[in-house]
Amino acid sequence: MILGGVAIVDEFHPVCPDDGVRLERRRNETGDQAVYCPGCARSFSTANGTGDLLDLAPSESQADGILGPENAVVYRDLVSETVEQAHARGDAASPWGDPRSSQSGWIAKREHHALWALERLEGDDLAQLTVCDVSGGAGYVTFALASRAKRVVHCDLSAQSIIYVRRRAQELGLSNIYFCRADYLRFPFKHAFDRVVCFDTLVRGWEHERRAIQQISEAVAPGGFALIDLHNWWHNPVRRIGLLPNNFVGNRSYRRREIPSLMLQAGVRQYSVEPYYPETKSGGSPSGILGGLLQPTRFSLRFDSRPV
Ligand SMILES: C[S@@+](CC[C@H](N)C(=O)[O-])C[C@H]1O[C@@H](n2cnc3c(N)ncnc32)[C@H](O)[C@@H]1O
Ligand SMILES: [Zn+2]
After folding, report:
1. What counts of helices (H) and strands (E) characterise the chain?
2. d(CA 69, CA 84)
3. pTM
4. CATH for 231
5. Cβ proximity of 234 and 253 under 8 Å
6. 15 lies in a domain?
7. Considering every ligand atom, which ligand is closest to the CA of 43?
8. Residues 199-235 pLDDT 10s
9. Residue from 30, 25, 72 nearest 44 by CA
């Protein structure tokens, strides 16, 4: 049994991504449960009444003027495909990072990162907690969490991500995952989750990251915390001297010293930073001479809930 999309309304009290008004559930003319905004009268799709996922994407693009040309195209494609359209693709629905079309070494890196993140989330009693992955992609983190957390809320603006991960969850017999299409630039959850994570996503530019981090900090319930990462890809000297291919074109790489200003502008005053090295199995600094030279490719940031 997959958790119902309308149950998301009861459990996490989402707001309308267009006007911020608290959503309600109602019965529609055919007697089915529907999700509805009393502010703008918009109805939200629960995938043709199947009721097991919820589409809370905003009705308009939120990224105008803040993305470079390549990223704007990717964003527009994500916005334009509905959950119903992705559902109609059947098996061809394929999210970013789809393991069916990825190399095993690359998949192993993502799985290591998911376990590394899990260790950082496990401090308290994870089995009692709800974790939201705001840009869950192919679900590497969602699936790692599902066996340990009480509940996982898998979000992504990509309808194909939602459809793919939902189908995989069914195949794996996982029954504690909610599925919600959502845009982190207008995230529909406020103070809703014990833990919020967002990995390998905040690379699109300063204003994009600033808005997303602000929204993420507002999604954390009082007493909870968020874990995100920023990339230091291009500032890593080993890459800059051309020893590795630059597969980061069009994306934003952050220096350690830029982080305070970004976080302050996003409204997050207190946070901690931990380096993450995807190059090693442990995520820690490589040993030997290389270890001394290599900067971390990612910075992992942890911050608490914003005051309500
Ligand atoms: C590089 S992937 C990372 C996926 C996953 N976090 C991981 O580490 O494997 C970035 C993900 O962000 C999603 N995404 C991009 N823009 C988004 C937005 N505005 N709101 C929500 N998700 C978005 C993409 O669809 C994609 O699944
Ligand atoms: Zn509304």
Report:
1. 10, 11
2. 27
3. 0.94
4. 3.40.50.150
5. yes
6. no
7. 2
8. 999 999 999 999 999 999 999 999 999 999 999 877 7
9. 25
- What the block records as the tokens of 11 is 């459990």
Q: Which residue has the tokens 């901690």?
A: 272
Look at ligand 1, atom 4, and give the residue with the nearest C-alpha: 137
Residue 192 lies in domain: 49-304
- SS3 state at 44: strand
Residue nearest to atom 13 of ligand 1 (CA): 135
**Rounded-to-integer distance, Cα 176 and Cα 1, Å:** 9
Cβ(123)–Cβ(148) below 8 Å: no
Token pair, residue 20, equals 């911020």
Overall number of domains in the chain: 1
Mapped onto helix, strand or coil, the DSSP state of residue 298 is strand
User: Residues 55, 45: contact at Cβ < 8 Å?
Assistant: yes
Judge whether 7 lies within some domain.
no
Residue 167 covered by a domain:
yes
27 part of a folded domain: no
Share of the chain above pLDDT 70, in %: 91
Q: Hunting for tokens 């890809």 — which residue is that?
A: 233
Distance 18 CA to ligand 2 centre (A): 5
Cite the beta strand spans of the chain per DSSP E. Answer: 24-27, 33-36, 43-44, 54-55, 130-133, 151-156, 177-181, 193-198, 220-231, 272-276, 298-304
